[in-house]
Amino acid sequence: MLRIRRFIFILYIAFKYRLDELVLSSIQHPWTHRLLRWVRLGRQPKLSRGVRLRLALEALGPVFVKFGQVLSTRRDLIPADIAQELARLQDRVPPFSSELAAKTVEKALGASPHVIFKHFEVDPVASASIAQVHFAILPDGREAAVKVLRPGMREVIDKDLALMRTFANIVQRLLVDARRLRPREVVAEFEKYLHDELDLIREASNCSQLRRNFGPETGRADLLIVPEVYWDYCATNVFTMQRMKGIPVSQVDRLLEAGVDLKDLARKGVEIFFSQVFSDGFFHADMHPGNIYVSDDPATLGRYIALDFGIVGSLSEFDKNYLAQNFLAFFQRDYRRVAQLHIESGWVPPDTREEELEGAVRAVCEPYFDRPLSQISLGQVLLRLFQTSRRFNVEIQPQLVLLQKTLLNVEGMGRDLDPELDLWDTAKPYLENWMRQRIGAQGLKERLTKEAGQWSQLLPQIPRLVYENLSRPDALPALHDELRLLRQSQQQNNRLLAALCAVLGVAVVVALWALVR
């Protein structure tokens, strides 16, 4: 009954914001055009389709808001105007009661938060669709931020996801372009992200890994501050971390008042992104301004502070090498190499004509090079490449979609800080240096060092293995004998089968002759 009521409410919201017109206008069939005229009743919607979709998702609640946020990252699948509008979705969700938050912490950690912590602020400082945050002080005096999952979220999410899957199946059958849009896969991808965000232990692990990647021993500690995880106060629905203080990166006036060098801050943002992608293969994939702060502490002034680690991306060595070579080929306008990389990656059918793909890549990239470098968007180039790749039946990898979305966020954030930021010029030396380290003597030395542990176990065994193999008796004569006996047995079976067939044939002929008489 509850699911039926929810379904009816969704239909009501869809008609209220004229999403019926949006869906019907996407179906290429004669009867849909007649139905569309009847639905419109001679009226055209006053708001654009993107605005109507955004307002409808906000009215449907937190799960649909999250879905819209994830969908906004799939600019390779949805029109640009809709993606741009969905990117404006915010988690404007009222907090749940402090008593309920305290009970959640007590159930997860085994005691009341007022007992576990030296101090626990009852009123939350931030509230989103999945969780809310309370400040606290640990028994040893350290300041902490306690993230508490909304109670009952898993049940709510599972019900809404079931309805989303139903809608996706309907769209898959009705829309002509559904094979390209892949609504079922989009919903499945969203379901994965959402369930990952429901596990705060996973988020704490992501935070811990990122902190280690920017630790003092890496030489990158002056770029990014990542909060420490307080594991003794964590559970699947409670995540306790070091409290971070700073200025939101979007508040430029406050940053200037604090004495932060905005040009240097913009360049550091690019360096952080590329070091995560190419050095670590592990990157914060939700780097919008709400999740990024800048330290105003005199000791760490101007360092970025990362928050919210629910969505991260991972890249294999193959992905990193593929991306680095693609970017360098762009910088050098070597479009043939870009086409070759697409074919070598296996993401393009092997019968793809290299020169045809090269021409398509040139059509994407060449217009950008006629602009000043400061006006070139590397994220937009990557997006256009994804869209062009669709013509050649390329399946875009999920990790690359996350990467493209993060790159767009980093570019937008950097240009807000420094309108003249030249992302290409900032990134090119880093990529060239990374390729030299990977292909040159230093890269060889690092790989040999990495494999040395395995070799130290295998090398002493090689003489024994060689001796055992050489000292084994020659098995070839026995194998020849077995094959000869097998051949003889098969020949005997063939003769027996032929004799049976002959007898059966004679019996059939005699039976027919008897019937004819």
UniProtKB/TrEMBL annotation:
Keywords: ATP-binding, Cell inner membrane, Cell membrane, Kinase, Membrane, Nucleotide-binding, Transferase, Transmembrane, Transmembrane helix, Ubiquinone, Ubiquinone biosynthesis. Pfam families: ABC1. It comes from the Bacteria. Signal peptide: none annotated. Residues 119-459 form the Protein kinase domain. The chain crosses the membrane at residues 496-516. CDD domains: UbiB. Pathway: Cofactor biosynthesis; ubiquinone biosynthesis [regulation]. NCBIfam families: PRK04750.1, UbiB. Belongs to the protein kinase superfamily. ADCK protein kinase family. This is Ubiquinone biosynthesis regulatory protein kinase UbiB. It comes from Paenalcaligenes hermetiae. The gene is ubiB_2.
